[in-house]
Amino acid sequence: MLGRKSKTLGVKAAPARHGLGLFATRRFQAGQAIGELTGKRIDDSNYGSEYCIDLGDDWSLEPDEPYRFVNHCCTPNAKLYLVFDDDDPIDKRKVVLEATRSIQAGME
Q1: Which of 16, 56, 57, 93 is deepest in the core (most CB within 10 A)?
Q2: In a structure prediction context, what are the per-residue pLDDT tens digits for the chain, which is 108 residues long?
Q3: Phi and psi angles of residue 37, each rounded to the nearest 5 degrees, phi first
């Protein structure tokens, strides 16, 4: 599945400068949701990995492909948002990747 275009997501994992990265397969506008990260939710305050995302309350999300390959950048074109209501249980908390500026097809 790596390196293969996802028809529904508009992104794919592919080789980048440092390992794999997440690349757009279509254009995204600033403010547009690129996708929701799903994966295994882990209840362990000491858990950590190269890809995990803090969900709060000692919980982490180990994202599924292709979003596990979102890379850090000093001039980012997207941002992760944790979306939930204060009384939502952990399994209702969503992590969304949103474009912060225009992203052209082929951009990481």
Answers
A1: 93
A2: 344 444 458 999 999 998 999 999 999 999 999 999 999 999 999 999 999 999 888 999 999 999 999 998 899 999 999 998 888 888 888 999 999 999 999 999
A3: -85, 130
Q: Which residue bears the tokens 């500026």?
A: 101
pTM (2 decimals)? 0.86
Sheet holding 53-56, edge to edge: 39-43, 59-63, 53-56
* Distance (Å) of CA 3 to CA 11, 27, 52: 10, 18, 21
Q: Which two tokens stand for residue 13?
A: 């994992």
At 26, list the tokens.
């279509």
Q: How many CB atoms sit inside 10 A of residue 62's CB?
A: 16
Distance CA 2, CA 12 (A): 7
Given the structure tokens 């690349």, which residue do they identify?
23
- What is the DSSP annotation of 28-50? B-TT-EEEEE-EEEEE-TT---S
